[in-house]
Fold this protein.
Amino acid sequence: MALEQIAESRLSKYEFVRAGPGELVRVPTFLSGDFGRDFFKEYQARVKADYSDASYPSLEAPFRVLKRRKGIVIGSNVYAVVLANQILREVGLRTATPADVERTIKSEELNLSRVYIDTGLILRRYPGNKNRDLVEHLTKQLSDRCHEPPVMIPLASLDLRRYAYSSSLTLDLREDAEVIPCDIPCQPAGFNSRDIDEKTGLPKEYRRGDRNIFPRGSGLLRLRHEKYSIIADHCRLDSSCDKPNNLDSQGRIVAVKDD
């Protein structure tokens, strides 16, 4: 079933503001409370409609990473965040970019201690051996728009697509996609919070500082922001990508609204 065939989103009844009294949803926000409950119902409905297929049972597996515990949606991976972004955009929101997360860390609008936020993909200059189909697909799209690796693509700039009659998923650049040149170091490095570029959410320079970046691997990297570090590691998007692990409960999705 195509997304446009699904009834009006359960999230349409909410109004989103950056501040104000009453029962409004203040952003940035975790997916929590009544809003989180209705988001999760909508998310499950989309997964069932578009990615639940008895012929390809593995297709649905990556989306099971999201769970609702104690009133908040927990868990995160690339596919789940991109689908969440598509749902949130229907009500004027989107998922947080690296720049959004860094602003939130600075303002302390949300408590980001002991959690991580999936924010983007980094496509390095050397493609590596993993996710070759997706790397080639993204590289072709970037070339068509006069970009070339190394770049960072916020997850909010991607749409999810299923190949017909297949258990394979791919990612397409949105028309309004933000593509940011990004040549991160090959080894762990330090940086200062004050050295963050406010437009990109990434360090402008690397040196001994109050935070660290941990890059791991070549090709396509999964970018995760934490309060005290940035992690760019192997992006596993094959059939084994989202077996349960100890990180699942630490993942959060942050919803934001453009001014």
In short: The first strand starts at residue 16 and ends at 17. Confidence is low (pLDDT under 50) at residues 1-5, 238-246. The radius of gyration is 18 Å. The chain is about 20% helix and 25% strand.
